[in-house]
Amino acid sequence: MIDDMLEKAKKQRVNDIYILPNDDNKYVIKFHMNGGLASKSNISDEDAEKLISAIKYRAKMNISERRRPQLGRFRGAHVWIRVSSVGDFLNRETVVLRLIYSEQHKQHWLSSKQFEQMQLGLPESGLFLISGPTGSGKTTTLYQLLQNIADNKLVLTIEDPVEIRNPNFVQLQVNEAAGIGYEALIKVALRHRPEILLIGEIRDYQTAKAVVQAALSGHLVISTIHAMSAREIVLRLLELGVDRNQLLAALTMVVYQRLVPMTSGNQAAIVDVLCGSDITMATGFTIQWQEVLDEAFLAGKITSATRTTFQSL
């Protein structure tokens, strides 16, 4: 049952699978793509219980524990699956699966000039950060940026888990169960003297501090962080406790990315890029964000509704 479900999800390039109880003693399975519902189907309580138990077994979670939150993960064919489970107020279990695809796919761009701008602006050292919602293609963008320079420079990545395998990079993977987190791996990575260090995600103060220190020591450090705009990246890091002066000295470029639905049926990336003094001076989205949306609409790439929706995101 698991394999059939995952195979269907992979064919649709689904990001998240929700297995949720509903009001009529049944469960619903929802496939989500880039924040939107792609499809859903109902299954019986009995089938849901078997499915959830099988998922938790693969993810090395406690099958008998149905109320307390649990996290786990397992590997499928060309995909990593992160699993989160918790019981609701009626002690019915809810499970969410996050699919992380191993193979690298080419990112479509609403404007190819934006990707070229980031490539040309990629600094020799300092901190380059990209933010955006889950499933917005951040890792794919970072790998594309680094792919063209990996032949001449040592690129080392630290991820949880490694999302895209690349033989041109030295790739390390976080293992919290073994006590090997981002902070510890960053220290190890720096001994390899990489010219470029890619950190999968900044989640806490320890990682944020280590990333800033690495950037200030002459490395180019690239990472992702959860923020709702390019400007909010700075605010998020300050909230984590990073020293403001050190942060501003390290930061060279911040990017906010979204995936926009196109009339062709594909998804295309749009980015908001801030460099230099603009990182702290900006009060909202740049003019370029609006211009790219307008040009895409006039070219028939997106609908009027899509342009309006993404103007204020």
UniProtKB/TrEMBL annotation:
Keywords: ATP-binding, Nucleotide-binding. One of its GO terms (molecular function) is ATP binding. Coiled coil: none annotated. Residues 124-244 form the AAA+ ATPase domain. It holds the Pfam family T2SSE. PANTHER family: COMG OPERON PROTEIN 1 (PTHR30258:SF2), TYPE II SECRETION SYSTEM PROTEIN GSPE-RELATED (PTHR30258). This is Competence type IV pilus ATPase ComGA. The gene is comGA.
